[in-house]
Amino acid sequence: MKNFQNKVALITGAGSGIGRALAEELSDQGCSLALVDWNNESLQETKEIVRKKNISVSTHAFDISDRDKIKELPQKVLDLHNQIDIVINNAGISVIGSVDEVSEADWNWGLDILLSSVIQMSTEFLPHLQERKEAVLVNVSSIFGLFSVPKQSIYNVGKFGVKAFTESLSLEMEMTGSPVEVYCVFPGHIGTNIYNSSRFKSFDPETASFFGKAPNKEEAGMVFKNNAPTSASKAAKVILKNIKKKNKRILIGYDARFYDLMSRLFPKNFLKIIWILPFFRDLFSFKKEK
């Protein structure tokens, strides 16, 4: 899809971070928006930012783990916008804790949002996307969908699952000659609120230092957002640029590109290698990609 003008895009997690940045970028390019987030207040803030553009905007405030709400969503979007051309499954959460600390409820809650909702959103909207001459489905995984780290087992499983599901669906669409282009996104460390809004089962300053040194989880959340090498705005620009170029596998940030390469070259020693970038980050001040 080389042009987003006069298209309609649905974005989950649109209340902040990459989701909000995507809404801003798409609205600048003449794309109407259906915005989804569990937080109605932040969702309305995003709407206020984009509503002055010459586009239509609708908001849908609900928890994407709600299966019935997802089933109702395609028709609601069609009633309001008459069409749907782009679906971006961006919403995500994190549960931080070791495998023996997280409970069955944590696993169910985390994977409902990280993986099951992505699968259901994709399958519910796919028939409607298939009806368009050209359409786009974007699922956001993570660098933690490429390799695993301690205390992020739920996030790792969810994001690995998104990768597997999206790549399989992409191949199926290509094999059948479908008009739907399917993209998988692997953001590196992006300056968002996801760490600060994580569900903590425990806090380990040593593990948290992967993103920057902090003595407690509150400060770790601020460090995560402020020290990120890539901004949400830059991430949104990269995603849309790669869609226009039809690059189905989208890595965001030099850290994502570095870790992707190292995990392939040194799979046995990768856990030692992942600390190279944090080490150099502490020695030198990297300029943020804005």
Protein architecture, described:
The protein has about 290 residues and is an alpha/beta fold. The protein has a single domain (about 10-285), classed as Rossmann fold (3-Layer(aba) Sandwich). The chain contains eleven helices and eleven strands. It has helices at about 15-30, 40-50, 65-80, 105-130, 155-175, 205-210, 215-225, 230-245, 255-265, 270-275, 275-285; strands spanning about 10, 30-35, 55-60, 85-90, 95, 135-140, 180-185, 190, 200, 230, 250. A seven-stranded parallel sheet has the order 3-2-1-4-6-7-11, with helices on both faces. Helix 1 (about 15-30) packs across helix 8 (about 230-245) and helix 4 runs parallel beside helix 5 (about 155-175). The model has no long low-confidence stretch (mean pLDDT about 90).
CATH superfamily: NAD(P)-binding Rossmann-like Domain
Strand order of the largest sheet: 3-2-1-4-6-7-11
Which geometry do the CA atoms define?
globular
Mean pLDDT: 89
How many strand units?
11
CATH architecture group name = 3-Layer(aba) Sandwich
Distance between the termini: 24 Å
- Reading off the top of the CATH hierarchy, the class is best stated as Alpha Beta
Give the helix tally.
Answer: 11
Uncertain runs are none
Quote the CATH topology.
Rossmann fold
Number of domains: 1
Main sheet summary? 7 strands, parallel
What percent of residues are in strands?
15-25%
One letter per element, helices H and strands E, the order comes to EHEHEHEEHEHEEEHHEHEHHH
**What percent of the residues sit in helical stretches (DSSP H or I)?**
40-55%
